[in-house]
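Chapter review. Work through the record for MFS transporter before attempting the end-of-chapter questions.
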Amino acid sequence: MSSRHPENRRFLALAGSCVAIFWPGALAFGFPGVLAPYWMTMFHAGKGAIGNTLFFNLASLGIVMFFVGRWQERYGMRAMIMVGTVFLSLNMLTIAYAANLGMLYLWAFLNGAATCFIYTPAMTTVQRWFTRRRGLASGVINFTFGISAAIMSPLFHKMVASIGYVRMNLVVAVLALVCGLIAAPFTASPEQLKRPPALEPEAPDPLIPHHPSLSVRQCVRTRSFWFLWATWALQGAAGIGMVSLATTFGLSRGYAMPAAVLILTAFNTLSGFGRIIMGYLSDHVNRNRAMSVTFTAAGVAYLLLLQVSGLAGIMALAAVIGLAFGTLFSVSGPLAADCFGMRHFGAIIGLVFTAYGFFAGLLGATLSGYILDLTGGNFSIIFGYLSVCCFVAGVCIRFVTPPELEPDPDSAVVPARSSGNPS
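Structure tokens for MFS transporter:
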């Protein structure tokens, strides 16, 4: 990329990362919700068995993301995103020709693994390019990650109805491959470009306290890491629960499938827009407080869902839950950079995602599905315990602060924005 326009390179990296993450987001947050009723018919399975799809998807994040965080330090962001794109596209053949639940679970697991190869490098790239606006940059990436599902959920429904299940999956495979391969060349981090002085990323703000980068070993010894980990397990469960339950809940209230999909669309819309809004706000207000408030609001929304009868009211409450889910994604990265630094950012976020992968999926998707099967479709127990998850997460995130530790000798000092008010 030409050095005559150094500022453009920063925004091209952001744009490329957004394009690369679009299809992983659509397939993670929109595809299962829309296709769940079809899968139940195709595989003669109950809600609990289909809910396992999200568990396998998230479990792969818990397993793979840490290693991607390590590998990207060696091979670079562009290479990781290209690998993930090809992997994501080829895996659509698995679901297109799935003949049983085992193949459905395999698709879900491999889809999550492919997402790791795209999401982690994209997040790391923009955090390194936008050192003074990490919250905003993270918000833009996660906005795209979330809003893609809101855009594609109605289209997935129309595509499967108009061109058929197999052909729809093949079309998605081609679109994901083309978009990802076009975007990948623009996603290099500043270090990869071996930039001249004109291409230096944003200078750190001298008024913002600097915290040294911690190694992974140091990070896991801190209280802050484990409170962040618990936050992802609990609030992640509350968010991913709505992904799997939105259309099913709408159908249980007597709405037709197109109307039920609107509940999922409302959730994903505010999850998407909330990511960029809360990411921007987190650069100017206390990150911990902002997350705590939205998590608590989601807990109240879950309690109110069964009290509201109109579709508009249900959509509004689902949107509040989506806002909290989007906030979890967009603000956690900058908060982790504040607390632990950028040198090992990818690996540390990968470890945090083990909570999301192994526990959020079980609590939010798998357990809720089996409870529905056992209770004949009673949502009161599910929404009750998901609200508790939100309330506890709102408390946990308050304790995620920069730890008082000496840095490793080989850890670079990387400027990071304080999690408090910078002004």
